[in-house]
Structure formats: C-alpha cells, structure tokens
Design a protein that fits this description.
mainly alpha; 4 helices
Length: 112
Amino acid sequence: MPTSSNPTSTPSEPNFSAPWEAEAFALRAHLVRTGRLDAAAFSACLGEEMAAGHAARDGGTAYFVAFVRALERALAADVPAGALASEQGAWRAAAAATPHGAPIDVTGFRRK
C-alpha cells in the first residue's frame, strides 16, 4: 500500500510539490480527526473535482488544485452563505498587499 499523499510520486520523489500542498493535506487530516469534516463527503467532492480536470497553478499539481477545491466545497456546507467568498476575498486582498516572503495578515482585510 503506498504511503505517499501524492498519488503520482515515487518513493524517491517528494510527496508534495509545494508547501501549500502539505498544509492542505494536514488541514484536511485535522478537520477529519476533529469531526469538522466528513471524510466521505470530502472524498465525493474530490472525485468530482478530479473529473473536472483542473490545471495546475501556483507551483502545485493539478491533484492538489482539485484537493483544495474539494476541501472548500466540503466545508462550504457548514458555512453561512457568502462567508466563504468573503473570507477568500479577504485572503486574496491581503496576499496581494503583502510583500513576497512576508507573513500574510488578513485581519485588516475582513469585512465587519
């Protein structure tokens, strides 16, 4: 049984192409372990996203683009309407305003 989180990697290759991929995988594991995310619902969303054939971006693989979209969709069922889009917008604005390499502080970008 493969132990890699990336289904396309071999034992001599890294499991993740970029740090954000590892973070997304760890977040999903934490959410399932703490009961905030239903593993079966996530798997169904991931299957649908993989079938959509997302292009890789931001130095990641298409698998993890689909992975993050599936994670967003699976969590959206528990989030009030519009809250996810608002949070995504705040993060995008904060990231755009942050110098490369500096930590992103989203605090001043969230709507009240």
